[in-house]
Specification:
The structure is a homodimer.
Chain A: H1 4-16, E1 31-36, H2 43-46, E2 54-59, H3 66-79, E3 83-89, H4 99-108, H5 124-137, E4 146-152, E5 159-161
Parallel strand pairs in A: 1-2, 1-3, 3-4
Antiparallel strand pairs in A: 4-5
Chain lengths: ~160, ~160
């Protein structure tokens, strides 16, 4: 069973009442959000973002990675964002995980994960501080970018500022 | 002027009526979505995804990158996703861009972008095919993952299947 036909049918309904066709590419609120891919998180909803408001970057953990830097350079240089919100969350799959465990999982199905760092972490608040620090230290992230780091509680929907 | 106080105030309102606190981490619909960070795109809305339904990965262009592979391995191995939807879009900032241009932009503010590949593309449908092919060719992406590639039209809200 595939869910893809359901997703395409949902899109037909969405397109039938679509009204946001005239928006420009540059985010109206000049902000980018980096957060986790977690299915329980909807950054548009928990941050009150409307269509056209913000660039939204998501990966496992909401971690800083060269791909995030690549995307943030585009967001700043071409799309004019000047603020950046980093959001990690409680009950994250990356919390307490280890690279050895992930590599073992892959080895069990015959796949060599090589030296991939899955970017797990043991301390949620520290992971937010580490990623904000990494962004602030990167020469590729412009110095006039305002950066905050938050933790999202998946059980309450509430954000807490860490940095 | 910062928008961050507004985002935190919006979150207070969101949390005050939050009802999705009991969801498990594994996506209910066992699907992951890879799409662009573009401010005009809200994958939950244009694919009809509810809270808890899907892992959502976003970067500049919705391109495959080692960080995406990292995240998809976690999504498959730990969170049980078995389908993957890749969505690029019309009017994307990565369309027609060049690495030389981006590196020049950075050089103009004194930053050496080194050999960063910003993953621009010249043909929208081909970029979708290339990324689906890259995922299918990766030994890290399990062979039983169903992958489709779509183009989202930012002017109509409509998806078109490419592969």
């Amino acid at each position: 069973m595939s869910v893809i036909p359901e997703l395409l049918a949902a899109n037909e309904r969405y397109a039938a009442s679509f009204t946001a066709g005239g928006l420009p590419p540059a985010p109206a609120r000049r902000v980018a959000v980096l957060t986790c891919m977690d299915a329980r998180m909807d950054p548009a909803k928990f941050l009150g973002l409307g269509d056209g408001d913000a660039n939204v970057l998501r990966n496992a953990g909401g971690r800083v990675h060269p791909d995030v830097i690549r995307s943030l350079v585009v967001s700043y240089e071409l799309l004019g964002t000047r603020e950046l919100v980093v959001v990690h969350h409680t009950d994250c799959g990356m919390l307490g995980l280890s690279n050895a465990y992930m590599r073992g999982r892959l080895r069990a199905r015959g796949v060599d994960a090589g030296r991939i760092d899955f970017l797990p972490f043991d301390d949620l608040d520290q992971s937010v501080r580490d990623d904000v620090d990494a962004l602030r230290a990167s020469p590729l992230i412009a110095g006039d970018t305002r950066i905050v780091g938050l933790v999202y509680d998946v059980h309450s929907g509430r954000l807490r500022q860490v940095v």
